[in-house]
Amino acid sequence: MWIYQNDLEEGIEGFPKIPKTTQAKARKNKELEWLKIGREIVYKKEWIEAWLDSNIRSISTKSKAN
């Protein structure tokens, strides 16, 4: 099942709302896997979960260092 960029922006399937600009930045930095089907940018659920998990780990690591 594909999750569309617009759906992720609105918050779908238990994911937080992620603005398109944040998604674009993550794609540009190759932090978030994506696929383009026609004109639509789509994600797999696993890709989003992995990206969110890596962000949570990096935040908790930074807070432990301070």
Strand order of the largest sheet: 1-3-2
> How would you describe the shape?
elongated
Q: What's the total count of β strands?
A: 3
Number of helices: 3
Low-confidence stretches: none
Rg = 13 Å
H-E order: EHHEEH
Q: What share of residues are in beta strands?
A: 15-25%
Largest sheet: 3 strands, antiparallel
Overall helicity: 40-55%
Mean pLDDT: 89
What is the end-to-end distance?
40 Å
Structural class: alpha+beta
Task: Write out key terms for the chains shown.
about 70 residues; 3 helices; alpha+beta; 3-stranded antiparallel β-sheet
List the helices and strands and how they pair.
Elements: E1 2-4, H1 5-10, H2 20-28, E2 35-37, E3 40-44, H3 45-65
Antiparallel strand pairs: 1-3, 2-3
Description:
The protein is of the alpha+beta class and 66 residues long. 55% of the residues lie in helices and 17% in strands. It contains 3 helices and 3 strands; from the N terminus they run βααββα. A 3-stranded antiparallel β-sheet has the order 1-3-2. A hairpin with a 2-residue loop joins β2 (35-37) and β3 (40-44). The longest helix is centred in the last third of the chain and has 21 residues, at 45-65. It starts with a strand and ends with a helix.
